[in-house]
Amino acid sequence: MLQVIKAFALLGGEWVLYLLLALSLWAVAVMWDRYFYFKKKDQDAGLLDEKIPALLTQGKVKEADQLAQKSNAAQANILRVGLANLSAGPESLEEILESQKVREKLEMEKNLLVLGTLGSNAPFVGLFGTVLGIIKAFNDLALAGTSGPTIVMRGVSEALVATAVGLLIAIPCVAAYNYFQNRIKRSLAMADRFSGLLLAHVKKEKG
Known about the structure:
The protein has helices at 2-9, 14-41, 45-57, 61-69, 74-84, 90-108, 112-144, 149-206. It is mainly alpha-helical. It has one domain. Helix 5 (74-84) runs antiparallel to helix 6 (90-108) and helix 5 (74-84) runs parallel beside helix 8. The mean pLDDT is 84.
């Protein structure tokens, strides 16, 4: 067993660099997909967030519904479901709105786990490659039967490339993850505001 582990370690960390390259392409694909998803979703979200609260406060649910029908934003989808179930009563309507909110959140968070995982673990993958590279460098040095700081430092510097690549992947992944999470938080906050105003309208009408 120890011989197998040693043989694996002596492969060096070059294969880790290829793994990191593949992971970086995966991360870029997720960023690209989520960017255009939110761009499409939020293209008219500002107008929606500005007008809907006033309409719901004034009890103009039909006008609010017409405006929500023209939008593809998450808060608009939640509002449309709520407006379609006004007759369900305040308690049931609240559950319906919460269920739709969970559905929208899951859709918005699709594949963001990839960015979060890479952001937190890519440096460790790179460090793993560095350790393997250093092990191989010292093993090659021992087999060569030579010594000197130049030979050692060359092997160490090559091994450290994996750590640098891991950090290079992790930093944009963390930044993108936080950016998209912030957009989700804003959308859901507005959805909560719409839901609260809609429930207040229903309770007022019922009263």
